[in-house]
Design goal:
mainly beta, about 160 residues, globular, 5-stranded antiparallel beta sheet
Length: about 160
């Protein structure tokens, strides 16, 4: 088998750096790739408070969260809540209902890795959200139904 190096996909580098917030939340896709056979996206998220506070699932995406700073409480219907701290993670299978919230006291910083293509931060490309509410309707991440509050950076404060 011969590989055409001119047509081969190229590696992406990224840095785990994000502004810490005084209020709200941010979600930045920092690397992503996809084809009909495979896909992956990597995002860094920061929450001053709150979280993804509406139960939802991602119908076609397994994904994981790893706590880089702060603490998070993950909730699933009819299951005991799980509090996670630094260097702890949770794997969410496609279709599983969940929500999470930041534990008050310090910003929550999460690394999120999923197996779907997502546009990189700053891209004008639009991809339909596969986030689904318990009633089967689409639930956009930045919607008031998902209790979204835009992030307000703390000047000069970063996780890195």
């Amino acid at each position: 088998m011969t590989i055409d190096t001119k047509a081969a996909p190229k590696a992406q580098t990224y840095r785990l750096k994000t502004a810490l917030l005084s209020s709200g939340r941010t979600h930045r896709v920092i690397a992503s790739t996809g084809s009909p056979e495979h896909a992956m996206n990597i995002a860094i998220k920061c929450y001053a408070e709150g979280g993804e506070n509406a139960f939802h699932s991602h119908g076609g995406e397994d994904h994981t969260f790893i706590v880089l700073a702060g603490r998070a409480i993950f909730h699933e219907p009819d299951a005991e809540s799980k509090e996670l701290g630094r260097n702890e993670g949770i794997l969410i299978p496609a279709g599983a209902l969940y929500k999470f919230e930041a534990v008050p006291g310090e910003p929550l910083v999460l690394l999120r890795v999923g197996n779907q293509y997502k546009p990189l931060e700053g891209s004008s490309e639009v991809v339909d959200s596969d986030r689904v509410a318990p009633d089967g309707s689409q639930l956009l991440g930045n919607s008031k139904e998902n209790l979204h509050v835009a992030g307000v950076p703390i000047p000069g404060a970063f996780y890195e």
